[in-house]
Protein backbone atom coordinates (compact mmCIF):
# COMPACT_ATOMS: atom_id res chain seq x y z
CA UNK A 1 0.00 0.00 0.00
CA UNK A 2 1.49 3.33 -1.05
CA UNK A 3 1.17 6.69 0.59
CA UNK A 4 -1.56 7.81 -1.82
CA UNK A 5 -3.59 4.68 -1.15
CA UNK A 6 -3.32 5.32 2.58
CA UNK A 7 -4.62 8.90 2.26
CA UNK A 8 -7.40 7.83 -0.09
CA UNK A 9 -8.68 5.22 2.36
CA UNK A 10 -8.97 7.86 5.09
CA UNK A 11 -11.14 9.98 2.82
CA UNK A 12 -13.51 7.06 2.31
CA UNK A 13 -13.61 6.45 6.04
CA UNK A 14 -14.28 10.13 6.72
CA UNK A 15 -17.00 10.19 4.06
CA UNK A 16 -18.60 7.09 5.56
CA UNK A 17 -18.52 8.62 9.04
CA UNK A 18 -20.04 11.85 7.70
CA UNK A 19 -22.87 9.95 6.01
CA UNK A 20 -23.56 7.95 9.16
CA UNK A 21 -23.66 11.11 11.25
CA UNK A 22 -26.12 12.73 8.82
CA UNK A 23 -28.38 9.69 9.09
CA UNK A 24 -28.23 9.76 12.89
CA UNK A 25 -29.06 13.49 12.97
CA UNK A 26 -31.99 12.99 10.59
CA UNK A 27 -33.33 10.14 12.74
CA UNK A 28 -33.00 12.24 15.91
CA UNK A 29 -34.99 15.04 14.29
CA UNK A 30 -37.71 12.60 13.31
CA UNK A 31 -37.88 11.10 16.82
CA UNK A 32 -38.14 14.49 18.49
CA UNK A 33 -41.38 15.11 16.62
CA UNK A 34 -40.46 18.28 14.84
CA UNK A 35 -38.87 21.63 15.30
CA UNK A 36 -38.07 23.03 18.74
CA UNK A 37 -40.73 25.72 18.49
CA UNK A 38 -43.72 23.33 18.48
CA UNK A 39 -44.16 23.15 22.30
CA UNK A 40 -43.98 26.94 22.54
CA UNK A 41 -46.45 27.31 19.68
CA UNK A 42 -48.82 24.90 21.43
CA UNK A 43 -48.66 26.87 24.70
CA UNK A 44 -49.24 30.20 22.94
CA UNK A 45 -52.18 28.83 20.97
CA UNK A 46 -53.69 27.53 24.20
CA UNK A 47 -53.35 30.98 25.81
CA UNK A 48 -55.08 32.68 22.88
CA UNK A 49 -57.91 30.13 22.73
CA UNK A 50 -58.43 30.39 26.51
CA UNK A 51 -59.27 34.07 26.05
CA UNK A 52 -62.44 33.02 24.24
CA UNK A 53 -63.23 29.46 25.36
CA UNK A 54 -62.66 27.56 28.60
CA UNK A 55 -60.52 24.54 27.60
CA UNK A 56 -57.98 22.24 29.24
CA UNK A 57 -54.27 22.32 28.46
CA UNK A 58 -54.41 18.96 26.69
CA UNK A 59 -57.23 20.14 24.39
CA UNK A 60 -54.74 21.66 21.93
CA UNK A 61 -52.45 19.37 19.93
CA UNK A 62 -49.86 20.61 17.43
CA UNK A 63 -48.11 18.13 15.12
CA UNK A 64 -45.78 18.43 12.18
CA UNK A 65 -46.76 15.87 9.52
CA UNK A 66 -44.79 14.95 6.41
CA UNK A 67 -46.96 14.98 3.28
CA UNK A 68 -44.78 13.99 0.35
CA UNK A 69 -42.24 16.77 -0.09
CA UNK A 70 -44.08 19.18 2.22
CA UNK A 71 -44.31 19.55 5.99
CA UNK A 72 -47.87 20.19 7.18
CA UNK A 73 -48.62 21.84 10.52
CA UNK A 74 -51.62 19.99 11.96
CA UNK A 75 -53.41 21.86 14.76
CA UNK A 76 -56.22 20.10 16.61
CA UNK A 77 -58.39 21.87 19.20
CA UNK A 78 -61.03 19.96 21.18
CA UNK A 79 -63.71 22.53 22.02
CA UNK A 80 -66.21 21.94 24.83
CA UNK A 81 -69.76 21.12 23.79
CA UNK A 82 -71.42 23.91 25.77
CA UNK A 83 -69.18 26.71 24.41
CA UNK A 84 -68.76 28.37 27.83
CA UNK A 85 -66.17 31.01 28.41
UniProtKB/TrEMBL annotation:
Function: Prevents the cell division inhibition by proteins MinC and MinD at internal division sites while permitting inhibition at polar sites. This ensures cell division at the proper site by restricting the formation of a division septum at the midpoint of the long axis of the cell.
Gene Ontology terms for molecular function: identical protein binding
Lineage top rank: taxon: Bacteria
Coiled-coil zones: none
Keywords: Cell cycle, Cell division
Family annotation (HAMAP family): MinE
UniProt similarity note: Belongs to the MinE family.
Keyword presence, DNA-binding: no
GO biological process: cell division; regulation of division septum assembly
Name listed for the protein in its UniProt record: Cell division topological specificity factor
Name of one Pfam family that matches: MinE
Amino acid sequence: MGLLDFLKSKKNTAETAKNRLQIIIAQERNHRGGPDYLPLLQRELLEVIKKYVNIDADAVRVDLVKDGEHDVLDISVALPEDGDK
